[in-house]
Amino acid sequence: MAITAEDVSLEDIVPISLDFAVVEVSSPEELAVVGADTKVRVSYQERALELRLPFGSHSRFFLSEVNRAWSEVCKSATQAPGFKWVGKYYKATKGLGVVKQALAPSGATLTKLSQQRKTAKSGPSEKERGANAGAPTSKQTGQESQVKSSREDRDDLVRSSSHTTSNKAQILAMPQFGLRDNIIRCELLKTEDLYTYTEDFSFFLGTYNVNGQTPKESLRPWLSCTANPPDMYCVGFQELDLSKEAFFFNDTPKELEWTKAVAEALHPDAKYALVKLVRLVGIMLIFYIKKEHAEFISDVEAESVGTGIMGRMGNKGAVAVRFRFHNSDICVVNSHLAAHIEEYERRNQDYKDICSRLLFRQLDPTQPPLTIMKHDVIVWIGDLNYRITELDVTTVKELISQKDFETLHGHDQLKRQMDEEAVFVGFVEGPIDFQPTYKYDTGSDKWDTSEKCRVPAWCDRILWRGKNIAQQQYQSHMTLKTSDHKPVSSLLVIGIKKVNAEIYKKTFEDIVRNIDKLENECIPSVTLSNREFHFKDVKYMQHQSVTLSLSNDGQVPCQFEFIQKPNEHTYCKPWLTANPPKGFIAQDGSVDIELEVFVNRSTAPKLNCGKEKMEDILVLHLERGKDYFISVMGNYLPSCYGSSIHSLCQLREPIQDMPQETLRRVAENSQTDDETNTEKPLDIPKELWMMVDHLFRNALNQEDIFQQPGLRIEFAEIRDCLDTGIPDSLPGSNHSAAEALLLFLDALPEPVVPYSFYQQCLENCSSASQCEKIISMLPQCHKNVFNYLAAFLRELLKNSASNRLDVSILATIFASLLLKSPTKQDLAEKRRSQEFFQHFLTQGSS
């Protein structure tokens, strides 16, 4: 798993006062990298440091918050700030000179400078510029910026983004613009065809599953295969590193090795600037652009999403980069979907998960994030892992030898799923006239000669969606033999929207004149399709949604937003969301809002026992207009997921067969340790026994158990079986049952090792005898569950030759579920919790 902000802690503090300063500094080499991380110098009194912030919206938001705080200080410059709140940190800090990583966005790194005060005149060897963490301009790629050192100019030193001439309309998305400017933006978008024209640019797309290998040969036959140098490169890798260190800690030296190999193989007839690199475990995407086009790139964002076990692990998933080039919004996705020939439904699910969960933050943090589909052009590359079906390996190889790719393609799973509109709706793939790219013996062009003798398949694909796109080539590159896959490339020529500045100016002025006539004449008004919504039979981790339609029946455009009710921090209960939560409706226009309910591990406990009802009132506010009240209710079906171990041990019948009053009473007794119940409780929850017993009987030899995800539809069937007792045995695959067990443990309100024992476990993690002693002191039902699970996992390890598990993998997966921190857990604590649990995997425990 990647190291996140949860893994760092606060040690030292820099107060933001009149003695505080922040400027952005970069070396000349860094200025040439369009999407480089942002380096800022933070100084306070006699101390200073350099802080490296990861490129993107998180850093922009961090810097804008610093600027906002500094502006507040300047407003009250005559009052010396007391910083009394800092007192509580004195014991843990060495002084007020250093910003620790916890104060910066995830991924930030810092370098301490000398204790001498660093000023804007710190030396000619550095190029300093205003702290611009956003989209780069030509000044960033070739010109030196001067430092603004006066206090009056400091508001300019930390700013959200810079803009090119070609995306003036995007400026209107910034937070300082209100209803009037949103109307202008809407009208500009509606009339975009008047002031834009298209110009063709070439995009080179490449994908390569390198099977954990290091570069052994030049990549030039792949990356420089076009006659003319392309305008952009988007190069994707999968399985960059297959080591456990990469899998669990997202750390690999191979990133640098392959990045260097790519840089050396770009087309020799052009100069390129690196815009962005993003990686999730072994999935990496590198984005280059010709240097002469760099100034027209803006709004660059990179995101990733894992679709591995429990939807978190990054061994499968996607990375993506979105950007604006001139006036076109483009998104490039590199994904690695689920493996194995029979798992096409899992691949479909991975695709849908990536589309729904991969979100890009907008320049205006109050605006909802952008999804993949909200772009003019989408390019999707990667090891999609779809296979050839219904043909044996001999027939497939014979068709390949005859170059009858058309017949073979008819049996391709991706083609069939696209034809059925199950995935990649609206996407296009060019004709395939090259042989399958998987699987070869490494270092050769021979098909797989291993015992498994894989059926050849077109696993590695390139698809696109959008207008004005033509593919000039689509091919594999057989000369590269480093991996068991062959790399694939595509050259797309895309019509990019460019702005005619003169016509844009005239259009803008016309729109403003028309709005001036309308302003203040009318009050906005909308019609709601419904004001009461009821969700029937809501289940744990099962999405339900309804559509609320808003129609603008007023005389002017309007802006809407769901607002907080008095004494509440959010506009809705945590199990409810409205998408979008705010927006703009043109005159006579309409918008559909999805009201979605989703109960997860944080909201299930109180709903399960009836302490909370599924009821809420949404307040829809119109700017300069009135408020509308919308009632949302639902019937939640209690689940073992999100119920406590103690409560489940008191229930001999399925939870949905129990009256609500009984569930409430059992939950209350659980919190007060009431022992008045005369009926002997179960030793362990029956639901836990059903899952473990099923896995013990069916999955001891299952390859990649607890590492490969199951199907969501099968999890739903397993959950219903546990909650209703129907059917008698668990449905679904072994992988789905294994993931259902992990989700059950993850959803426990109080973990198997209660929070009160957490610190004691970490302090004694190196002593096996002390660890066993701590477990012996757990409440009886918790102790039973812990020992039962440990015994089962030891049985799994006896079959490691077939299931490919080891102590390290199981300790990493289960320690984080059984031994949870009551607060955020740092990396050192994670390692100690794993050490604690390893004792119970390597020896017996009473």
Automatic annotation (TrEMBL):
Annotated region described as Disordered, given as residue ranges: 110-166
Q: Name one GO cellular component term.
A: cytosol
Segments of skewed composition (Basic and acidic residues): 149-158
Record-linked CDD domains: INPP5c_INPP5B, RhoGAP_OCRL1
**Bias regions of kind Polar residues — which residues?**
135-148
Enumerate the spans annotated as Rho-GAP domain. Answer: 670-846
Q: Which domain of life, per UniProt? A: Eukaryota
Subcellular location(s): the record lists: Cytoplasmic vesicle, Phagosome membrane; Early endosome membrane
Q: Name one Pfam family in it.
A: Exo_endo_phos2
- State the top-level EC class: hydrolase
| Record key words, sorted | Cytoplasmic vesicle, Endosome, Hydrolase, Lipid metabolism, Membrane
Q: Which residues form the signal peptide?
A: none
Q: Name one GO biological process term.
A: signal transduction
State the family it belongs to: Belongs to the inositol 1,4,5-trisphosphate 5-phosphatase type II family.
Gene3D superfamilies per the record? 2.30.29.110, Endonuclease/exonuclease/phosphatase (3.60.10.10), Immunoglobulins (2.60.40.10), Rho GTPase activation protein (1.10.555.10)
In alphabetical order, the GO MF annotations are:
inositol-1,4,5-trisphosphate 5-phosphatase activity; phosphatidylinositol-4,5-bisphosphate 5-phosphatase activity
For this protein, the record's InterPro entries field holds: Endo/exonu/phosph_ase_sf, Ig-like_fold, INPP5B_PH_dom, IP5, IPPc, OCRL-1_2_ASH, OCRL1/INPP5B_INPP5c, Rho_GTPase_activation_prot
Q: What is its EC number?
A: 3.1.3.36
Q: What is this protein called?
A: phosphoinositide 5-phosphatase
Species of provenance: Gasterosteus aculeatus aculeatus (three-spined stickleback)
